[in-house]
Design a protein that fits this description.
- By secondary structure, this protein is of the alpha/beta class.
- It has a single domain (about 5-30, about 85-395), classed as TIM Barrel.
- Helices cover about 35% and strands about 10% of the residues.
- It contains 16 helices and nine strands.
- The strands form two sheets. Strands 1, 2, 3, 4, 5 and 6 form a six-stranded parallel β-sheet that branches. The chain has a three-stranded parallel β-sheet with strand order 7-8-9.
- The longest helix has 17 residues, at about 145-160.
- It is globular and about 50 Å long.
- The relative contact order is 0.16.
């Protein structure tokens, strides 16, 4: 079953009415120092306009028709000729946070991932998180907060003709498909079953925790992690039940932001249910020593599960004690490939929620990263895997 068909099956009884069986065509600085765009606002006035419902899907470029065989066959086309430029599927673009909490217009006139930037970057798809800040309601976020942010996400899609809600099926030529995730799901500890309706509306990745510990799990940057080993509590009992339900409903748990102990608990659960482990926006700790990055052991475990880790462009996770550059992204990619394998690295830029290097400042610069990866020795097929093929594979996962 293709990844498109699998996501159709996952949402067959929900809003994804436009799905067809068969193949279609083609903030992080908060944990450092409150980066622009991820600081706690003095007041939040969420945009509440209703837009198109967003479900889950993606687009796969249709293969060109085969030429008729001849007595003197032509040379096989190079991968670049056969496939064209790699089109990013970015697993983490924090634009809804900017609109919902920071007052940016839903038409996206500014930021690191405007429509013009996505078009220039050759994007195939973005994953917009429903990011539920830990600080809401005096540190007690509610599921209703997630519902309000989801409406803002819909409004963004409705205001930008380039964006194509996945509920409408495969994106036409020239459109960028929009998928959804949840980041910081602590509010669901009060109502585990509430996640069902978010998966039904198209959420594909669910991160139980963000910058602070919550009732589901401990965070890589939370108090328990700072007090380890005694306080590294990991995935709680209710957190395990929540993650089990996420998997049962056909979505995937995102381990980015999890403490090492939480990662271990989630990995055991993922292995039991046969799910790929996904870190939507995390780098290699061996290259930049930050608790938000993945250890080599964690990268290997992600690979063993068939999962993927998305390269994060936040400068503080790329380099420590100096200015980060695009070359640091390549350095992380090469290390992650060496440890986990080429089939287990993807993209999770964290645009609109991070401080990226100056030479990778926004979504329009993704072709430059592809060129740098090729220059480092990766093949064209390798770059295509990182830019989208590996993510498509994990999105095709379905519960046993």
């Amino acid at each position: 079953m293709s990844w498109w068909a699998a996501t159709c099956v996952a949402l067959a009884s929900s809003t994804l009415a436009g799905c067809v069986a068969g193949e279609p065509r083609a903030s992080e600085a908060l944990v450092e120092t409150e980066a622009p765009g991820r600081s706690a606002p003095s007041s939040a006035s969420p945009a509440a306009s209703e837009g198109a419902a967003v479900g889950v899907a993606s687009a796969v470029a249709s293969a060109p028709a085969s030429a008729a065989a001849s007595a003197t066959p032509s040379p096989a086309p190079s991968p670049s000729t056969a496939r064209g430029a790699p089109r990013p599927i970015d697993m983490h673009v924090d634009t809804p946070y900017q609109v919902h909490f920071k007052g940016r217009a839903a038409s996206l006139p500014e930021g690191q991932a405007t429509s013009a930037m996505l078009r220039a970057g050759g994007y195939e798809a973005v994953v917009y998180p429903i990011y539920i800040p830990d600080y809401l309601n005096g540190g007690k976020p509610r599921v209703s907060d997630a519902e309000a942010i989801a409406k803002t996400l819909d409004a963004i899609v409705g205001e930008n003709p380039l964006l194509w809600p996945a509920s409408r099926g495969p994106a036409p030529e020239g459109k960028v498909l929009v998928l959804q995730s949840i980041e910081g799901a602590g509010a669901f500890a009060d109502d585990v079953e509430a996640i069902d309706r978010f998966v039904a509306r198209g959420v594909r990745f669910v991160g139980p925790v963000h910058a602070r510990d919550n009732r589901l799990a401990t965070s890589a940057t939370g108090d328990a992690q700072k007090k380890k080993p005694g306080g590294a509590l990991g995935l709680s009992e209710i957190g395990e039940r929540f993650c089990e339900r996420v998997y049962a409903k056909g979505a995937l748990v995102d381990v980015s932001h999890m403490s090492d102990a939480s990662f271990d608990g989630l990995a055991e659960l993922a292995e039991r249910v046969g799910a790929p482990i996904v870190a939507t926006h995390s780098n290699a700790r061996a290259v930049a020593d930050h608790p938000r990055n993945l250890t080599d052991a964690q990268l290997r475990r992600i690979a063993q599960s068939g999962g993927v880790a998305g390269l994060n462009f936040h400068a503080g996770f790329l380099a420590r004690g100096r200015e980060a550059t695009l070359d640091d992204v390549v350095r992380h990619a090469k290390h992650m490939i060496a440890v986990a394998g080429i089939d287990h690295v993807g993209l999770g830029s964290d645009f609109d929620g991070a401080t990226p290097p100056a030479d990778l400042a926004d979504a329009s610069r993704l072709p430059a990263l592809a060129a740098a990866l090729r220059k480092s020795g990766l093949s064209e097929d390798d770059v295509h895997k990182i830019y989208g093929d590996n993510v498509k594979r994990v999105l095709a996962w379905r519960p046993r």
